[in-house]
Amino acid sequence: MNRANRRAPRSIAEQIADACGLSIMEGRLRAGDRLIEQQVAERFSVSRGPVRDAFHILERRRLVDILPRRGAFVRSITLESVADQYGVRIALATYAAGHAARDPSPGLLAALERRLAEIRAAAEGPEGDPPAIAFALGRACHALVRAGGNELAEQIWAELNDHSFWTTLWKIPLEGATPEIRRRRADQFADTLAALRARRPDAAERSVRLWMEEGREGALEALRRMRPGPLAGPRPDARARPALAGPRAPAPQG
Predict the structure, then answer these.
(1) CA pair distance 146, 131, nearest whole angstrom
(2) Is the Cβ–Cβ distance between 12 and 254 less than 8 Å?
(3) Phi then psi for 168, rounded to 5 degrees?
(4) 239 DSSP assignment
(5) How does 25-62 read in b/e, with b if 16+ C-beta sit within 10 Å?
(6) Burial, 107: exposed, middle or buried (Cβ in 10 Å; 0-12, 13-18, 19+)?
(7) From CA 2, how far away is CA 171, in angstroms rounded?
(8) From first to last of its 254 residues, what are the pLDDT tens digits of the chain?
């Protein structure tokens, strides 16, 4: 079992939010679609309480708007907004890498060694495990941001993780689809670790920026292929069809 699958168990509401979030990001739920509590509850064979909690999680992730007395409606998610998410994360991580490279702590280097081992393990085989690579790279960036000692940067990173659609986005296998790309990511991250060990801030910044920007372009291209049209169009009137699109998902475990 990979590290991404060994995280703390998710609540039923989180599992429902994850499934609905994937439907939104993959285009099975479109901007303006209304999510109906009873339909979602029946889809996952649960009561309406966890569904209401799931809708609030989706609202925190900026995937839906909850309108008083009208319900939850899918927000418009554009390629530009996805690129913006990557851009902010790239800026924070490269800044943190340069700062950390000036005096990397043994704890940081050990943590990044563990992330590198996870990335190499997830890169193996004809299929590999792209979401596990994305998770390990995300944890590595978080470790760099924490090591930077910049409280504001840490707060912004936490906000991006907890209050944006990033929580859903990284779970989609958008990047690292081929063995060559997966091995390249592992080698690039090894270069980052080497730059940190050598206390070379400029090299560390360049290395992090390289694999994060390549990851962004790969993800955007995958989203373009995944969806039939633009990532999401303008948000229609809130009276749009009350539908829960997409195939029936398996009931969450919990």
Answers:
(1) 22
(2) yes
(3) -90, -40
(4) T
(5) bebebbbbbbbbbeebbebbebeeebbebbbebbbebb
(6) exposed
(7) 14
(8) 444 445 556 799 999 999 999 889 888 898 999 999 999 999 999 999 999 999 999 999 989 999 998 999 999 888 888 899 899 999 999 999 999 999 999 999 999 999 999 999 999 877 888 888 888 999 999 999 999 888 999 999 988 887 777 777 777 766 667 889 999 999 999 999 999 999 999 999 999 999 999 999 988 888 888 765 545 433 334 333 434 543 333 344 44
User: What are 157's two structure tokens?
Assistant: 């990173």
DSSP per-residue codes, 81-149: HHHHHHHHHHHHHHHHHHHHHHS--HHHHHHHHHHHHHHHHHH-SSS--HHHHHHHHHHHHHHHHHHTT
Q: Which two tokens stand for residue 153?
A: 């940067």
Beta bridge partners of 71: 67
Cα distances (angstroms) measured from residue 152 to each of 54, 92, 96, 145, 236: 29, 10, 12, 10, 36
* Phi/psi at 188 (5° precision): -65, -40
- Residue 232: name the closest of 32, 21, 22 by CA: 32
Q: Which two tokens stand for residue 72?
A: 């939850």
Which residue in the block uniquely carries the two structure tokens 């995280």? 7
pTM of structure = 0.77
Residue 128 has, within 13 A of its CA and on its CB side, a CA count of: 26
